[in-house]
Amino acid sequence: MRLAIVGSGPAGLSAAGRAAQLGMSHVLIEKTAHLSDTIYKYQKGKHVMATPATLVLRSDLAFDAGKREAILGIWDDQAAGLAIHVRYNAEVTAIEGEEGAFTLKLKGGGTIVAEAVILAIGTQGNPNRLRCPGADMPHIQYQLDDPTEYIDEHITVIGSGDAGIENALGLAADPAQGNIVTILNRSADFARAKKANVELLQEAGAAGRIIVRTETSPAEVRAGELVLDTRDGQETIPCDRIIARTGSAPPRAFVEACGIAFTSPEREAFPVLSPVFETTRPGIHVIGALAGYPLIKHCMNQGYDVVEFLNGNTTLKPADEPILAEKFAPLPGNRSVEEWLDLFGSRIEIFKELSPLQLRELMLDSRVKSFTKGQAVFERNAPGSSLFAIANGSVLVEVDKDDPGKVVPIAEGSIFGEVGLISGRRRGATIRAAEDLIVVELSRTAALKLIATAPPAARAVNRIAIERQLLQIFGSGLTTEDVAELVDGATVEEKRAGAVVLKEGDEGNDIYIVRRGSMIVERNIAGKEVFLSYLPAGSYVGEMAVIDGSRRSATVRAAIRSEVIRLPGDAFVRLLDRKPELKRKTLGAMEKRREVNDFIEGRKENFSSVVDMYSQTAQFLVDNGIGEATDVLLIDETLCVGCDNCERACADSHDGLSRLDREAGTTYAHLHVPTSCRHCEHPHCMADCPPNAIRRGVDGEVFIDDTCIGCGNCQRNCPYGVIRMDSVPPKKPSLLSWLFLGKGPGPGEPPKLWRKKHAEGVESPKRAIKCDMCAGIEGGPSCVRACPTGAAIRVSPEGFLTVTRLGEDA
Prior knowledge:
- The chain is of the alpha+beta class.
- The chain has 5 domains: about 5-125 and about 250-320, FAD/NAD(P)-binding domain; about 140-245, FAD/NAD(P)-binding domain (3-Layer(bba) Sandwich), CATH 3.50.50.60; about 320-465, Jelly Rolls, CATH 2.60.120; about 485-605, Jelly Rolls (Sandwich), CATH 2.60.120; about 630-730 and about 765-810, Alpha-Beta Plaits, CATH 3.30.70.20.
- About 30% of the residues lie in helices and about 25% in strands.
- The strands form 12 sheets. It has a 5-stranded parallel β-sheet with strand order 5-2-1-9-18, with helices on one face.
């Protein structure tokens, strides 16, 4: 036998079809009683996509977008027509021998001898299991065959990839079934899923057919209910059934037993492959999902190509070759596609452990650019959330907006733009080519997918981001070499809302940087927790106990769902010993914290009121999400006279559409928090904005530009109800147009009122409306400027605590 093809999914079936067409002796080995178990196990009625649309299909079997049942029927007919030799109900348990004489052992006895082996077994049979208390409960399933089987159930789908989204959509397709369907995504982005699926999910969420919960993960599975870890703490929801679609991993034990090496030790890693799909064991080739290519069209092309290679076709290029050749053509150097891919893969750190196949797929979703020395890649404050990787040359970062001569170099192989990728902020600095430069620009979607699916890339991005955050926080002229030991020992930990990071009285061995979210610092006095301070993202804590060897002087807990970077304390102490300036700054910060402790100690005579005030302040922060804000509008109710000048001024500054509701919102002590945007550190509204219309301005303001299409995703994603959809008001005409042509609205006539008066029944396009902190308006926020009594103020969360404390002291 010339070829033994293991697995009859799209890749294996296509390989067998090519072998049959070429007259090569072959056998297609399938452990089930039907072809293509991968597609067979899709839920009934599933619409199968044929992406990417630009990629030409190479296969002797047809494939186009359509229903699961129709595709399976076509393949059955074509397999019979091609006379593919299939052996059903045959499971390979071992592969022995060598190239030219392999022996495949089958479960239950029997063997197959072949000169070459093609493994197309996929990863579907090895799903990632839930890892939380109750993960062995009987109502958890990892496969959905028929969504119409379930009636009147609370069903939770866990998983943000295509399979999870498609399962949720199928379960919610028929309202008559009465299912309440919830889908959980631990992050804010659906990075693993196809754009079309994400859009369908968003539509279903907007229509109320599916409850879409982002930044949420399972904490505990119980009978009839599910405990969730959410951004603001734990929550319990009814749950009769869980469909867990959290991905799958290669059947590593079997593959390694065949003598095949993997790219890394991670569970999600893929086999090491040559450009012709050959593994580290000569004669055994791997294609399809097991090679890291999950898309059907890619898999079928690989099946065709690998048989052509084995048949002696040495000139065949991959089907994506013309696309990549066109993409690389403008680059200097006159290299071939293979040479460019080799250069990118060998030089760029985040690509180094990707297989050539994975790299090709990534390049299809990326752009490549060249710049001459001195040319700007992007300017300070420019919008952008893409990630750049340096393939050739280096760049200079202009760290001081007032002095372009102050620069920091970033070398070949590294990345930049990660701040915009992670936070959505505008570009924080101008970056120029230090020499002739070639970069790969990954779109936000492509970068997030790479990080989510390639552990080595995630580690590289994470290391670089940690290194740069340390340099930014500690300053003092530190270099990457200075913080290398800290970076090597750093770990990133996720903390749910309310989780304790440091506990008062414990020994202190490590330091923590608040990477995302915020922390509340408390101290126990006579059995009660006294609020001390608030720590926003970018702060660090824990150094006091590390430096002076004392126990933790306070408890630090997450105000909202947060991420912290844990740094080894002994490495930090050694850094301080080497850097006197950093040590001086750190000791100064410690002294300020001791002053806060002394303030509390000095108020013991009024202990009860002090405890109540600070405990209530901390709880208010947690309950109302102010801990993730960067700018909060407050109204001092002891000064407010209810004139509504703030609302009117806001409307006058924004075409008659006010961005705030003074009377709505919550109140703590003498301070009222009206319904107005808080400009979160990591804005929820930015997630799933199709035109990328939501951006962050130079002063930290989150605003929506004119590319808004009115989809309403931001309104649904905002947990604070500060975004609304409203009709776009007409622009005010010139005075002459209003006076002589009757065009309106005119002077003193708010556009919204004019529209109601003159355009009743006329459907106007809608767009998202929210506070933009009066960006571009001289003098700052108009609501604050218009307040006659000084009752309206805008502060950061730290300032909120100060204002609250002063008010109580008064």
